[in-house]
Amino acid sequence: MVKSGTRLRSQVCSTEVIVVRAGDDTAELRCGGFPMVDLDRPRESGPSLSEEFAGGTLIGKRYVDADGTIEVLVTKPGAGALGLGDAALSVKTAKPLPASD
């Protein structure tokens, strides 16, 4: 389980994120199909990018799950797509401003 403020990186690409909001869910935050690890953990050769999670990430974008229980901010883009367990995260859309007529 991750906490707000945690900085993580992918094991299979250059993606790095900061957890903005973390829910009570016990599912793992993943990138490229593999669990994300602490930013301080040394990079080692290992798993390769999963084809199912190869959509890529965009710098400065916030990603959320369908229920809105977790939100992460991408600080470094990469080739892997983000997911919570087996469910893909999507780019958070901006809320429309109220009309000021």
Summarize the structure.
The chain is mainly beta and 101 residues long.
Notes on the structure:
The protein has 101 residues and is mainly beta. 0% of the residues lie in helices and 32% in strands. The chain has strands at residues 7-9, 16-21, 29-31, 34-35, 37-38, 62-64, 71-76, 82-84, 87-88, 90-91. Strand 3 and strand 4 form a beta hairpin. It is globular and about 55 Å long. The chain starts with 6 loop residues before the first strand and ends in a 10-residue tail after the last strand.
Strand order of the largest sheet: 5-1-2-7-6-10
Helix content: under 10%
Summed up, the helix count is 0
Strand content: 25-35%
How many strands? Answer: 10
**Helices and strands, in N-to-C order?**
EEEEEEEEEE
Average pLDDT score: 89
List its traits.
four-stranded antiparallel β-sheet, mainly beta, six-stranded antiparallel β-sheet, 101 residues, 10 strands, single chain
What layout of secondary structure does this protein have?
Layout: E1 7-9, E2 16-21, E3 29-31, E4 34-35, E5 37-38, E6 62-64, E7 71-76, E8 82-84, E9 87-88, E10 90-91
Antiparallel strand pairs: 1-2, 1-5, 2-7, 3-4, 3-8, 6-7, 6-10, 8-9
